[in-house]
Specification:
By secondary structure, the protein is mainly beta. The chain has helices at 3-13, 86-89; strands at residues 25-36, 39-42, 45-47, 49-61, 63-65, 69-84, 99-114, 119-135, 143-145, 150-164, 167-178, 181-185, 191-194, 197-208. The protein has one domain (3-208): Porin (Beta Barrel). A hairpin with a 5-residue loop joins strand 12 and strand 13. The longest helix has 11 residues, at 3-13.
């Protein structure tokens, strides 16, 4: 899948819009280390996942709220990829591939508390739609994952640091979850659900831009 490459390529298209002057519009690109909750009550019993990665691309508008706070509505593309643990994969009937992945369109709101000129705390939440929800280990043989898309939600917490000009770096935590995914045994007709969330530690770079030429 070329989604991660696409997320990194899109900002290059807007390179001519970057500027050193202050701008309330921003682009934010993130990379994170993803860990998943265990899947319980599924074919294979309790299944653990190995760590994976997540990438994100967001476009937002930062609005001052008082002297020390600002609020930013933003639109975000988020992709994550992780894998079923090698020891547990053998316990899933007919499993061959071990990857799990999600691609989602999110609408977020983020509140920043500017504690100094350079440092800030942030907290945010978002809702959206995952167009890809994939668990390959349970989509083989007589097993079929019947849901491959659904609603998604998340929240974020972290610390921001201004590098100078319009550039900021952010280090934080993200918890992401989609709707439960149903697994059907096409021979017996039995169904089970994967209802889990993922936690990520991620680093993001944010920079201001002028969408209308400044």
């Amino acid at each position: 899948m070329r989604i991660p490459s696409l997320l990194f390529a899109i900002p290059v298209l807007g390179a001519s819009a970057f500027a050193q002057e202050s701008s309330d519009f921003y682009i934010q690109l993130g990379l994170g280390f993803v860990g998943s909750e265990d899947a319980e009550g599924v074919p294979g019993g309790t299944v653990e996942f190995d760590p994976g990665y997540g990438v994100s691309l967001a476009v937002g508008y930062d609005m001052p709220v008082g002297d020390h706070f600002s609020f930013a509505p933003e639109f975000e593309l988020y992709y994550q990829n992780f894998r079923v643990g090698e020891d547990d994969l053998t316990g899933i009937p007919s499993a061959v591939e071990d990857d799990a992945k999600t691609f989602a369109f999110m609408v977020n709101g983020t509140l920043d508390w500017n504690i100094t000129e350079q440092f800030s705390w942030y907290a945010g939440a978002g809702v959206g739609y995952a167009t890809v929800i994939e668990y390959s280990a349970w989509d083989s043989g007589n097993l079929s994952v019947t849901d491959d898309s659904g609603l998604a939600g998340q929240f974020k917490l972290g610390l921001g640091y201004n590098l100078g000009g319009t550039y900021d770096v952010r280090l934080g935590f993200r918890y992401f979850r989609t709707e439960a995914v149903e697994i059907e045994d096409q021979i017996t007709g039995d169904t089970d659900e994967i209802d889990i969330g993922q936690a990520a530690i991620e680093c993001s770079l944010r920079w201001g831009f002028f969408p209308f030429g400044g």
